[in-house]
Design a protein that fits this description.
Oligomer: single chain
Shape: elongated
Strand content: 5-15%
Strand order of the largest sheet: 1-2-4-3
Distance between the termini: 20 Å
Radius of gyration: 19 Å
Structural class: alpha/beta
Order of helices and strands: EHHHHHHEEEHHHHHHH
Helix content: 40-55%
Amino acid sequence: MLACIGCQWQMRPSAEPTSEPCVTLERYDQVEGLFLATGDIAAFGRMNTDYPIQTRTLVEDVLQLGPAGEPQMKSKLYDFFQDSTLQCLLADVERVYSSMDDIDAELNAAFSALHEMLPSLRMPSVYTQVSSLDQSVIVSDTLLGISLDKYLGSDYPLYLKYGYTEQQRAMMTRDFIVPDCVSFYLLSSYPLSAEREQVVSERHRHMGRIQYVVNRALGREVFDNEFVQAARHAVQKNSNLSMEQLLLAGE
């Protein structure tokens, strides 16, 4: 996980009826892509004025190009993405994700369900980016970034070229964007203690609980393994067990 970066979100009371979205999907990748494909100076300006935290996270933490505010950053970022492979990624992301209405709707349904199950959970600010095949999902405090270049399909030629396994590629599809977002956000919001993190069985049990809650939030069985089944059994055995108590089990 990246270091926490401040980003506040005003959460509505769950009892208040509203048709407004629970989260808003910001298409940072489109502004980023315009600059990286054409060198458009206005697009780079927007990256820094409209999306300062996203840009700082991208150049400093993901790509590790140096301080976002340094005078040469515009040239360093542009030059970095002139590699033919990265230009191919940019073009394919633009083509495959020209519309994300389906992802937007599923994100809102999932986080609305999470808000019902976990009322104290802060809602994230969600954005999309291209990150040169780095992390799939980035979480910093309540900022949640989706690297669309990691979700171009299980048969995407570059994934085959760079040696991603069949098991990895099976999850590098459009269908896994929302499950990954919810999973990583819950892991960030309900981390294991440092002591328990060192124990493999504890990590597996905790991930199983996370995945069980993800299944509940999405209304479909995305994940199914012995640890998810154990979490399901614990809930069935104790009808008074809340999702918060489940995720905090053992703390």
